Amino acid sequence: MADLVYRKVMHDLKQKIMANAFPNKRLPDERSLSEQYSVSRSSIKRALKILADQGIIFKKRGSGTFINPLFMKNKTIFHYEGSNLGITDSLKSQGMTPKIKLLSFKVIPANEELQQDLFLSPGDFVYEIKRLRSFDNQPFMIETGFIPIKIAPELSQDIVSGSIFNYIEEKMNKRVTRSFLSILASPSDKTDQELLNLSVNEPVGIMEGIFFLDDGTPFEVSNMRLHYKYLRYNTFVMLDDY
Amino acid sequence: MADLVYRKVMHDLKQKIMANAFPNKRLPDERSLSEQYSVSRSSIKRALKILADQGIIFKKRGSGTFINPLFMKNKTIFHYEGSNLGITDSLKSQGMTPKIKLLSFKVIPANEELQQDLFLSPGDFVYEIKRLRSFDNQPFMIETGFIPIKIAPELSQDIVSGSIFNYIEEKMNKRVTRSFLSILASPSDKTDQELLNLSVNEPVGIMEGIFFLDDGTPFEVSNMRLHYKYLRYNTFVMLDDY
DNA sequence: AAGTGGTCTAGACCACTAC
DNA sequence: TAGTGGTCTAGACCACTTA
Fold it and tell me: Where does the record place the HTH gntR-type domain (chains A, B) (predicted)?
């Protein structure tokens, strides 16, 4: 995957942007980039499109391509980034060592809400997986996930003690490529305070979401309660009507 | 704008999909579409890419292009797409009556951070606008906005007591179409507690963002502190590329 | 093996911005 | 007018799925 032309260009430009290789906050024009990288202008455009979709750069027709200044900020702090679906990979890409502690692992009948969210029928069962995620001995997230047993019949205590998404991709040869997320804030409860080392007036950030496989099947409903210092959800909204 | 090839194809296909013109939930292959529409395959791909980004279709390499069954079953899932950036409109569409109380309105020199975020030069000035938003007599948001005076030289106390975005669109004939948002949680401070009727252990949700005009010009830097019960940010994440 | 989507090229022409 | 990004084409070859 990593040998694709547009991906290489995209990654290289991203790296250069972060290394402040363009102090004037402006990228070379597309035709020059095409020459520099010895690739077609189309490939340059494709790489730039991705960076633009991620909000890292923006283009002004007739004028040039510029770096979004807000993207450069807050890079020193650890945070969960909206651009990655999996928590494990999200942490790894930031050089963190993720750790997972399994709190509980059960099979329960899906209630009505889960039936709706996961397109299940009455009587269907789901795994209920509670986990505590940490990095560098700092717990930052309590995660409760629900997965239909018929989608992943072979889940074991061993598997769910690691990255479930990686298991799905490597062993089941499917990809988790979409999710609906809700993000909100809430006072912490006793469990939060104990597990996440929070004082009573410190809140949690909550992410609720449904994750989908690449064929459109809803795969997991997840409720994530995060230490408030470790949630920063970045998102780029475009209203350019297609 | 509507005469672009890929847009026409995209709209036409979208309409056909909704009219159930593909009962087998499968689109013709790209080469056939290219012939049917008498456009290049690249243009077909571009149209399909947009539909895929919107979650309407998904592609399977070697197999074909298929209609997302979820799109037909539950269209509310994709609801965030039509949503508006402006708070005022966002509330109105939910049947709420928004109210704005102007807390302060000043002109100050842009500090270094604002200069960067808003593409300003040293010595440039910005408006600093602090407002409290309520609906049905329930205050829910403290908003601090910074807008370059050179972008909107005619801002008055009267204007900023209402919807600034609406003013921009109606009087200045520009559109706010993009924003870069960070969402996080934080304990409330004394001001939050007073203005938003929060107790000490109740948090705020924070949205920090830069809003851009449709030509890419950064228009406003905004810091929004929300009563935690009134922040729920919904988003749809796709990882198909990258 | 046939058919599908994915990647990439080289180049033409258009639309907008800056000077 | 010169330079920028935007659109579009025609075609080559690759990677994957299905039979």
Answer: 3-70
B62 CA → D15 C1’, Å: 8
The answer to whether residue A241 sits within a structural domain is no
Count of the separate structural domains present in chain B: 2
pLDDT tens per residue across span A89-106: 555 545 666 789 999 999
Q: Is A213 on the interface with B (CB under 8 A)?
A: no
Q: Are residues B198 and B107 in the same domain?
A: yes
User: Measured between alpha carbons, how far is B66 from B26 in angstroms, rounded to an integer?
Assistant: 4
Tens-digit pLDDT profile for residues B4-45: 899 999 999 998 998 889 988 899 999 999 999 999 999 999
Does residue A202 share a domain with residue A166? yes
Same domain, yes or no: A113 and A218: yes
CATH of the domain at A49: 1.10.10.10
State the DSSP code for A189: -
A82 at interface of B, judged by CB pairs closer than 8 A: yes
Which nucleotide's C1' is closest to A43 (Cα)?
C8
A214 and A94 co-located in one domain: yes
CB contact under 8 A, B239 and A85: yes
pLDDT in tens, A179-211: 777 888 999 999 999 999 999 999 999 998 888
* Assigned domain for A81 exists: no
Residue-number span of the structural domain to which A92 is assigned? 87-230
DSSP A150: T
pTM: 0.77
